[in-house]
Amino acid sequence: MNRIKLWDKEFEISLKYSDINQAIKEMAEKMRVDLQGKETLFICILNGAFMFASELMKELELTDAEISFLKITSYSGSNSSGEIKELIGLNEVITGRTVVVLEDIVDTGNTMKEVYDQLIFKGAREVKIATLLFKPQALKVDITLDYVGLEIPNDFIVGFGLDYDRRGRNLKDIYTLVSE
Protein backbone atom coordinates (compact mmCIF):
# COMPACT_ATOMS: atom_id res chain seq x y z
CA MET A 1 0.00 0.00 0.00
CA ASN A 2 1.57 3.27 -1.09
CA ARG A 3 -1.35 5.40 0.05
CA ILE A 4 -3.87 4.85 2.86
CA LYS A 5 -6.82 6.63 4.42
CA LEU A 6 -7.36 6.74 8.17
CA TRP A 7 -10.57 8.40 9.29
CA ASP A 8 -10.64 11.66 7.28
CA LYS A 9 -6.95 11.92 6.35
CA GLU A 10 -4.77 10.45 3.63
CA PHE A 11 -1.21 9.26 4.15
CA GLU A 12 1.56 8.24 1.75
CA ILE A 13 4.36 5.78 2.49
CA SER A 14 7.55 7.52 3.61
CA LEU A 15 9.62 4.81 5.35
CA LYS A 16 9.58 1.16 4.39
CA TYR A 17 9.85 -1.58 7.00
CA SER A 18 13.24 -2.65 5.61
CA ASP A 19 14.69 0.82 6.37
CA ILE A 20 13.11 0.88 9.83
CA ASN A 21 14.43 -2.60 10.58
CA GLN A 22 17.95 -1.66 9.45
CA ALA A 23 17.95 1.40 11.73
CA ILE A 24 16.86 -0.79 14.66
CA LYS A 25 19.63 -3.33 13.96
CA GLU A 26 22.25 -0.55 13.92
CA MET A 27 20.88 0.88 17.18
CA ALA A 28 20.94 -2.58 18.80
CA GLU A 29 24.59 -3.02 17.87
CA LYS A 30 25.53 0.26 19.57
CA MET A 31 23.50 -0.68 22.64
CA ARG A 32 25.11 -4.13 22.89
CA VAL A 33 28.50 -2.44 23.15
CA ASP A 34 27.38 0.37 25.50
CA LEU A 35 25.29 -1.76 27.86
CA GLN A 36 27.31 -4.98 28.02
CA GLY A 37 27.65 -6.11 31.64
CA LYS A 38 25.13 -3.59 32.97
CA GLU A 39 21.88 -4.79 34.51
CA THR A 40 19.72 -2.64 32.29
CA LEU A 41 16.04 -1.88 32.65
CA PHE A 42 14.40 -0.92 29.37
CA ILE A 43 11.20 1.09 29.69
CA CYS A 44 8.93 1.03 26.66
CA ILE A 45 6.67 4.06 26.40
CA LEU A 46 3.21 2.84 25.40
CA ASN A 47 1.34 2.81 23.19
CA GLY A 48 3.49 3.98 20.31
CA ALA A 49 6.83 2.32 21.08
CA PHE A 50 5.56 -1.26 21.39
CA MET A 51 6.60 -2.32 17.87
CA PHE A 52 9.98 -0.58 18.16
CA ALA A 53 10.63 -2.16 21.57
CA SER A 54 9.67 -5.61 20.33
CA GLU A 55 11.98 -5.47 17.32
CA LEU A 56 14.84 -3.90 19.31
CA MET A 57 14.71 -6.41 22.16
CA LYS A 58 14.95 -9.31 19.69
CA GLU A 59 18.11 -7.78 18.23
CA LEU A 60 19.81 -6.90 21.53
CA GLU A 61 20.52 -10.38 22.84
CA LEU A 62 21.42 -9.03 26.31
CA THR A 63 20.79 -11.70 28.94
CA ASP A 64 20.94 -9.30 31.91
CA ALA A 65 18.28 -6.90 30.57
CA GLU A 66 14.70 -6.44 31.70
CA ILE A 67 11.83 -4.62 30.04
CA SER A 68 8.88 -2.83 31.56
CA PHE A 69 6.20 -0.52 30.24
CA LEU A 70 5.01 2.97 31.03
CA LYS A 71 1.83 4.26 29.48
CA ILE A 72 1.65 8.00 29.01
CA THR A 73 -0.03 10.26 26.51
CA SER A 74 0.33 13.82 25.27
CA TYR A 75 -1.54 13.63 21.95
CA SER A 76 -5.11 14.23 20.91
CA GLY A 77 -5.78 13.56 17.23
CA SER A 78 -2.77 14.81 15.26
CA ASN A 79 -1.67 17.49 17.75
CA SER A 80 0.30 17.35 20.97
CA SER A 81 -1.71 18.68 23.88
CA GLY A 82 1.46 19.74 25.67
CA GLU A 83 0.06 18.07 28.78
CA ILE A 84 1.55 14.73 29.76
CA LYS A 85 -0.73 12.23 31.48
CA GLU A 86 0.71 9.12 33.13
CA LEU A 87 -1.82 6.37 32.62
CA ILE A 88 -0.03 3.24 33.82
CA GLY A 89 2.94 3.69 36.13
CA LEU A 90 6.24 1.95 36.62
CA ASN A 91 6.43 -0.74 39.32
CA GLU A 92 10.12 -1.75 39.10
CA VAL A 93 12.76 -0.49 41.50
CA ILE A 94 15.12 1.72 39.52
CA THR A 95 17.41 3.00 42.26
CA GLY A 96 21.03 2.64 41.18
CA ARG A 97 20.13 1.06 37.82
CA THR A 98 20.86 1.88 34.22
CA VAL A 99 17.54 2.71 32.56
CA VAL A 100 16.98 3.00 28.81
CA VAL A 101 13.74 4.66 27.76
CA LEU A 102 12.37 3.34 24.47
CA GLU A 103 10.27 5.95 22.66
CA ASP A 104 8.65 5.79 19.23
CA ILE A 105 9.22 9.42 18.31
CA VAL A 106 10.73 12.54 19.85
CA ASP A 107 9.46 15.80 18.49
CA THR A 108 9.19 18.65 21.04
CA GLY A 109 11.06 16.56 23.63
CA ASN A 110 8.67 17.57 26.42
CA THR A 111 7.56 14.02 27.17
CA MET A 112 11.09 12.63 27.24
CA LYS A 113 12.34 15.49 29.42
CA GLU A 114 9.63 14.80 31.97
CA VAL A 115 10.22 11.04 31.91
CA TYR A 116 13.99 11.57 32.21
CA ASP A 117 13.60 13.94 35.17
CA GLN A 118 11.24 11.55 36.96
CA LEU A 119 13.58 8.58 36.52
CA ILE A 120 16.55 10.56 37.87
CA PHE A 121 14.39 11.76 40.78
CA LYS A 122 13.47 8.12 41.54
CA GLY A 123 17.16 7.22 41.79
CA ALA A 124 18.25 5.80 38.45
CA ARG A 125 22.06 5.70 38.20
CA GLU A 126 21.89 6.69 34.54
CA VAL A 127 19.09 7.24 32.07
CA LYS A 128 19.56 6.83 28.34
CA ILE A 129 16.96 7.69 25.74
CA ALA A 130 16.46 5.62 22.59
CA THR A 131 14.02 6.84 19.99
CA LEU A 132 13.16 5.20 16.73
CA LEU A 133 12.30 8.54 15.11
CA PHE A 134 13.49 12.08 15.81
CA LYS A 135 12.15 15.38 14.45
CA PRO A 136 15.04 17.80 15.08
CA GLN A 137 13.11 20.83 13.76
CA ALA A 138 10.38 20.32 16.38
CA LEU A 139 12.68 19.98 19.43
CA LYS A 140 11.89 22.59 22.10
CA VAL A 141 13.81 21.36 25.15
CA ASP A 142 17.43 20.58 25.92
CA ILE A 143 17.63 16.80 26.08
CA THR A 144 20.22 14.24 25.07
CA LEU A 145 19.06 11.44 22.81
CA ASP A 146 21.54 8.61 23.24
CA TYR A 147 20.24 6.43 20.43
CA VAL A 148 18.37 7.70 17.36
CA GLY A 149 17.12 5.37 14.66
CA LEU A 150 16.09 7.84 11.96
CA GLU A 151 15.78 11.62 11.69
CA ILE A 152 12.64 12.73 9.89
CA PRO A 153 10.97 16.00 8.86
CA ASN A 154 8.43 17.67 11.12
CA ASP A 155 5.45 15.93 9.47
CA PHE A 156 2.59 13.98 11.02
CA ILE A 157 3.16 10.26 10.55
CA VAL A 158 1.49 6.93 11.30
CA GLY A 159 2.47 3.29 11.24
CA PHE A 160 4.91 1.03 13.06
CA GLY A 161 3.22 1.82 16.38
CA LEU A 162 2.27 5.44 15.69
CA ASP A 163 -1.39 6.26 15.24
CA TYR A 164 -3.96 8.80 14.18
CA ASP A 165 -6.83 8.61 16.68
CA ARG A 166 -6.08 4.93 17.46
CA ARG A 167 -5.72 3.79 13.84
CA GLY A 168 -2.62 2.90 11.87
CA ARG A 169 -0.44 1.47 14.68
CA ASN A 170 -0.48 -1.97 13.07
CA LEU A 171 1.06 -0.86 9.77
CA LYS A 172 4.61 -2.18 9.27
CA ASP A 173 5.67 0.82 7.16
CA ILE A 174 5.49 4.49 8.14
CA TYR A 175 3.21 6.89 6.29
CA THR A 176 3.21 10.71 6.14
CA LEU A 177 0.10 12.87 6.11
CA VAL A 178 -0.60 14.23 2.61
CA SER A 179 -4.06 15.76 2.99
CA GLU A 180 -6.14 17.19 5.80
The strands making up the biggest β-sheet line up spatially as: 5-4-3-6-7-8
- The proportion of residues forming helix, as a percent range, comes to 10-25%
> What's the domain count?
1
**Quaternary organisation:** single chain
Count every beta strand, where a strand is a DSSP E run of 2 or more residues: 10
CATH architecture level-2 label? 3-Layer(aba) Sandwich
Order of helices and strands: EEHEHEEEHEEEE
Characterize the largest beta sheet: strand count, sense, and whether it forms a barrel.
6 strands, mixed
Low-confidence stretches: none
- Separation of the first and last Cα atoms: 19 Å
Any idea what the radius of gyration is? 16 Å
In percent terms, what proportion of residues is strand?
35-45%
Which descriptor suits the 3D outline? Answer: globular
Number of DSSP helical runs: 3
The overall pLDDT average reads 92
Q: Say what the CATH topology is.
A: Rossmann fold
Structural class: alpha/beta
CATH uppermost class: Alpha Beta
Layout of strands and helices, then pairs:
Elements: E1 3-6, E2 9-15, H1 17-35, E3 40-46, H2 50-60, E4 66-76, E5 79-88, E6 98-106, H3 110-121, E7 126-134, E8 147-151, E9 157-158, E10 174-179
Parallel strand pairs: 3-4, 3-6, 6-7, 7-8
Antiparallel strand pairs: 1-2, 2-10, 4-5, 9-10
Helix pairs in contact: 1-2
